[in-house]
Amino acid sequence: MKKNLLLFIALIIVGATVTAVAYLLNLLFHQNWFSGWQEFVVVGLAGAMGGVFGPILSAWLTQKFKKRH
Question: Of 26, 36, 18, 66, which is closest to residue 10 (Cα–Cα)?
Protein backbone atom coordinates (compact mmCIF):
# COMPACT_ATOMS: atom_id res chain seq x y z
CA MET A 1 0.00 0.00 0.00
CA LYS A 2 2.78 2.41 0.93
CA LYS A 3 4.69 1.68 -2.30
CA ASN A 4 1.57 2.27 -4.40
CA LEU A 5 0.92 5.60 -2.69
CA LEU A 6 4.51 6.72 -3.28
CA LEU A 7 4.30 5.75 -6.96
CA PHE A 8 1.04 7.70 -7.30
CA ILE A 9 2.54 10.78 -5.64
CA ALA A 10 5.61 10.52 -7.89
CA LEU A 11 3.33 10.23 -10.93
CA ILE A 12 1.44 13.38 -9.93
CA ILE A 13 4.60 15.39 -9.23
CA VAL A 14 6.34 14.39 -12.46
CA GLY A 15 3.13 14.90 -14.45
CA ALA A 16 2.66 18.40 -13.06
CA THR A 17 6.28 19.24 -13.80
CA VAL A 18 6.11 18.01 -17.40
CA THR A 19 2.81 19.85 -17.91
CA ALA A 20 4.29 23.09 -16.56
CA VAL A 21 7.42 22.77 -18.71
CA ALA A 22 5.33 22.12 -21.85
CA TYR A 23 3.13 25.12 -21.06
CA LEU A 24 6.09 27.41 -20.39
CA LEU A 25 7.85 26.32 -23.58
CA ASN A 26 4.66 27.00 -25.49
CA LEU A 27 4.52 30.51 -24.03
CA LEU A 28 8.24 31.12 -24.48
CA PHE A 29 8.37 30.22 -28.16
CA HIS A 30 4.91 31.60 -29.02
CA GLN A 31 3.87 28.34 -30.62
CA ASN A 32 0.39 26.89 -30.79
CA TRP A 33 1.40 23.28 -30.26
CA PHE A 34 -1.75 22.44 -28.31
CA SER A 35 -5.28 23.72 -28.66
CA GLY A 36 -6.33 23.56 -25.01
CA TRP A 37 -5.26 22.88 -21.46
CA GLN A 38 -6.49 19.30 -21.74
CA GLU A 39 -3.75 18.49 -24.24
CA PHE A 40 -1.11 19.87 -21.88
CA VAL A 41 -2.41 17.55 -19.16
CA VAL A 42 -2.32 14.55 -21.50
CA VAL A 43 1.27 15.34 -22.49
CA GLY A 44 2.17 15.76 -18.82
CA LEU A 45 0.68 12.42 -17.84
CA ALA A 46 2.35 10.68 -20.77
CA GLY A 47 5.70 12.14 -19.76
CA ALA A 48 5.07 11.15 -16.15
CA MET A 49 4.26 7.57 -17.07
CA GLY A 50 7.45 7.34 -19.11
CA GLY A 51 9.51 9.02 -16.43
CA VAL A 52 8.19 7.02 -13.50
CA PHE A 53 7.57 3.60 -15.03
CA GLY A 54 10.34 3.62 -17.64
CA PRO A 55 13.19 2.94 -15.19
CA ILE A 56 11.10 0.30 -13.42
CA LEU A 57 10.40 -1.48 -16.70
CA SER A 58 14.05 -1.19 -17.72
CA ALA A 59 15.24 -2.74 -14.45
CA TRP A 60 12.71 -5.55 -14.77
CA LEU A 61 13.74 -6.33 -18.36
CA THR A 62 17.43 -6.25 -17.41
CA GLN A 63 16.77 -8.68 -14.58
CA LYS A 64 14.83 -11.04 -16.88
CA PHE A 65 17.53 -11.08 -19.56
CA LYS A 66 20.35 -11.62 -17.04
CA LYS A 67 18.64 -14.76 -15.72
CA ARG A 68 18.53 -16.32 -19.20
CA HIS A 69 22.27 -16.14 -19.84
Answer: 18
pLDDT, tens digit (0-9, with 9 covering 90-100), for 2-11? 878 888 888 8
For residues 31, 33, 34, 39, the Cα torsion angle rounded to the nearest 10 degrees is -130
pLDDT, tens digit (0-9, with 9 covering 90-100), for 34-57: 888 889 889 999 999 898 888 888
Q: Which amino acid is at 48?
A: A
Residue 69, classed as helix, strand or coil, is coil
Radius of gyration, alpha carbons of the chain:
16
pLDDT reported for residue 67:
72
Per-residue buried b or exposed e for 28-52, using 16+ beta carbons within 10 Å of the residue's own CB: eeeeeeeeeeeebbebbbebbeebb
Chain-centre distance of CA 42, in angstroms?
A: 10
